[in-house]
UniProtKB/TrEMBL annotation:
Family under the similarity heading: Belongs to the TonB-dependent receptor family.
GO CC annotation terms, alphabetical: cell outer membrane
Gene Ontology MF, one: siderophore uptake transmembrane transporter activity
Residues spanning the signal sequence: 1-22
Lineage, highest ranks first: Bacteria, Pseudomonadati, Pseudomonadota, Gammaproteobacteria, Oceanospirillales
PROSITE patterns: TONB_DEPENDENT_REC_2, TONB_DEPENDENT_REC_3
Position of sequence motif TonB C-terminal box: 673-690
Source organism superkingdom: Bacteria
Name used for this protein in its record: TonB-dependent receptor
Domain (TonB-dependent receptor-like beta-barrel) ranges: 249-655
Bilayer-spanning residue ranges: none
Bilayer disposition of the protein: Multi-pass membrane protein
Pfam families referenced in this protein's UniProt entry, alphabetically: Plug, TonB_dep_Rec_b-barrel
């Protein structure tokens, strides 16, 4: 029997990462029978094995069907739309990358990811200094995406205001070959090929894709090639070795830049100032290698050992004259070791994991001047940035009774940041900073019925500024001496469960207090700098409901209502922003999805998305209105003989052609806050499975 898996937003009794709920593709004859046929399954989580209704945390799990069925599989927002508490911007500017925020963490970054830990197949894509990129995630081979909606520093250390963990296929769950060819609006073209299978103790999966987009706006094209491969060798019944290879070639992604509101009204698809003159954009060449060993019978417990190496070559032209051409060559490597064991304390079962994480990042960075006429002139910076992190953690779950579970965890991290200045014509601007940080968490779970749970938890996190955020606005290089890490304290109450009539629910109330909030601002030359904003508050409720009211029909709804405010903040020029909203964050989002699964491979999904209003600056003078979007997708498939299946699918994004912004640049200089989003776009694809 085939199974498909439902995420927390789709099946709202989801568990800690790795704990999923299974339901047959061929649905039972009634919603009641279907609900009763959904067994709770306990599997090994990335850092601790937990059963669904003993997990004191808000976690969403998105499975393969949601990631791939009728989707373009280009950006994460397609897959994570129904995860409450999470907000994504910047789908269309590949040079800047998607901005991801979870409960307000990560919103400050104008590019890349901050405040959120990103893990792919156990490899941390978040660097020791706290930044991450999403451009190498292969959604064509993704089997599952797990989102921890809240602080998880005990498990992951620096920049763990939330966690996105992606697991790709290994060939055992989806054997065979797949070919996809897609096309659509704004010159969208994509082709992908994958193959996976099992041969005795060996299993493999290889995915290759090529993407090209002309772009909705002027000067916004991109070209990207991606390979993701996994090879696994079983070394007996309890041991295995897995090798992972991920290759990214992004020879060109153009950056159309930000616009003023007046420019948007005149011409939404125009490029910003200097973008075409200076040919703004980026190029990336990255290789990732990973090797992982597991032994499920290491003494009385289980042992996991992982190692990785990442090489990234990067160049970017920014949209202003001056020191705007930057490049770096990055070497990033590390290892982790974990030991899991189950034992008894008296007559109470205790499950724990103890681990050690090591990582080192070395960036050889340069910066060159670009004259007003666009000519590249002299070098203005040449430095080596090195970040080293060491973390050790211990986390355990104690079953006090059959209904009550107590969870406790602690972690110690040391993060060393060092800059060696090799450009000495303006003096030696070398420097170093070292941070020592303890993080803790505690949670209590009560299963008041078999498939219903209430939990509470609390935890602390910290987040160092990244190297780019340490940039000195005084222009003398080295570290900005006036900036410090931000720290937070999270409290959460959650309630979730499912009824026999096919109705399921997930409710989480959260309150986060942040000290020394890191906030960006743009200097007169267009460069982004950072400062600590005092204290801020994040409070809200996340609600997700799902109802399988018919064997073929399901409706899901995910609502987030929150308040993100500066509690006390006076900037460097003396402006008082106490009580102002934190920019770049909507305080209300609401996603609804109606899904129909017909006979065999026929399907359709209608989705509505509401994004509330937001502000774009600390002073709250620049307002961005709310908007509704409607998306539609569907498809069908036919067996051509044997194991060969032909699939046709397509979709419409922004069905009613609503004008809105794909990205809002926070505290932008010269009023260039806005990056317009496309209107109505369509795409279609054809696939062959064999």
């Amino acid at each position: 029997m085939k199974f498909r898996y439902l995420s927390t937003a789709l099946y709202l009794g989801a568990a800690m990462p790795g704990v999923v709920l299974a339901q047959p593709t061929s649905a039972p004859s009634s919603p009641r029978a279907q609900a009763q046929a959904q067994p709770v399954i306990e599997v090994t989580a990335p850092r601790l094995s937990r059963e669904l209704y003993a997990t004191p945390a808000a976690v969403s799990v998105v499975e393969r069907d949601e990631i791939q069925q009728g989707q373009q599989r280009v950006r994460l927002d397609e897959s994570l739309a129904t995860v409450p508490g999470l907000f994504l911007q910047n789908r269309d500017n590949f040079a800047q990358g998607q901005r991801v925020s979870i409960r307000g963490f990560g919103a400050r970054a104008p590019f890349g990811v901050r405040g959120i830990t990103v893990v792919v197949d156990g490899i941390p894509y978040t660097l020791p200094d706290g930044q991450a990129q999403l451009d190498a995630i292969d959604l064509d081979s993704a089997e599952r995406i797990e989102v921890i909606r809240g602080p998880a520093a005990v498990q992951y250390g620096n920049a763990a205001g939330g966690v996105i963990s992606v697991t790709t296929a290994d060939g055992s769950d989806d054997p065979g070959s797949h070919i996809r060819i897609e096309g659509g609006s704004d010159g969208y073209r994509k082709a992908s090929v994958s193959n996976g299978g099992v041969n005795g103790p060996w299993s493999h999966h290889v995915s290759v894709s090529a993407l090209a987009v002309d772009g909705y706006r002027d000067h916004s094209s991109t070209e990207k090639y991606l390979l993701n491969a996994k090879l696994r060798r079983e070394l007996g019944s309890d041991r295995a070795l897995t090798a992972i290879v991920n290759l990214l070639d992004n020879p060109r992604s153009e950056d159309p830049g930000g616009l003023t509101r007046e420019q948007v009204h005149e011409d939404r698809d125009r490029a910003g100032a200097f973008t075409e003159e200076y040919d703004t954009g980026q190029s990336v060449d990255q290789q990732v290698l990973g090797l992982q060993y597991e032994d499920l019978s290491a003494g009385p417990g289980e042992f996991y050992l992982k190692g990785f190496y990442l090489k990234r070559d990067f160049e970017q032209q920014l949209p202003y004259p001056g020191d705007s051409l930057i490049d770096y060559n990055r070497d990033y490597y590390g290892a982790s070791a974990e030991y899991h064991q189950t034992l008894s304390v008296g007559d109470m079962p205790l499950r724990y994991v103890a681990g050690l994480d090591l990582a080192r990042q070395k960036d050889d960075r340069g910066r060159k001047n670009v004259a007003f006429n666009g000519d590249v002139t002299d070098k203005v910076a040449d430095e080596t940035q090195t970040a080293t992190s060491v973390g050790t953690f211990l986390q355990g779950d104690l079953d006090l009774t059959e209904r009550w579970t107590l969870s406790l965890g602690g972690r110690y991290d040391r993060v060393d940041l060092d800059i060696d200045d090799d450009y000495l014509s303006d003096g030696d601007n070398s420097g170093d900073r070292t941070f020592h940080q303890w993080s803790g968490s505690a949670g209590l779970s009560y299963r008041y019925r078999r498939h219903h749970q209430v939990y509470v938890n609390t935890g602390t996190t910290y987040e160092t500024p990244t190297f780019s955020e340490f940039a000195n606005p005084a222009g003398i290089g080295g570290f900005n001496p006036d900036i410090e890490p931000q720290k937070s304290w999270n409290r959460e109450i959650g309630l979730r469960g499912n009824f026999d009539n096919g109705l399921d629910y997930d409710v989480a109330l959260f309150s986060v207090r942040v000290r020394d909030e890191l906030v960006p601002y743009e200097g007169d030359d267009g460069r982004t700098f950072y400062e600590n904003a005092g204290d801020s508050d994040r409070d809200g409720i996340e609600l997700a409901l799902g109802w399988q009211f018919d064997p073929s029909w399901r409706i899901d709804s995910a609502l987030t209502l929150a308040s993100y405010e500066f509690d006390s903040y006076e900037d460097q020029t003396g402006n008082d922003f106490d009580g102002n909203r934190i920019p770049g964050l909507p305080e209300q989002t609401w996603v609804n999805r109606l899904t129909w699964q017909g006979l065999d491979r026929r399907f359709a999904a209608l989705e509505t998305q509401y994004v509330g209003d937001m502000v774009a600056d600390n002073a709250n003078d620049v307002h961005v209105g709310d908007y509704w979007l409607v998306n539609l997708r569907g498809g069908d498939g036919w067996r051509l003989g044997g194991d060969t299946v032909l699939k046709l699918y397509g979709g419409v994004r922004n069905l009613f052609d609503v004008e809105h912004y794909a990205n809002v640049r926070i505290n932008a200089s010269n009023d260039r806050y806005f990056e317009p989003a496309p209107g109505r776009t369509v795409y279609a694809g054809i696939g062959v499975d064999f």
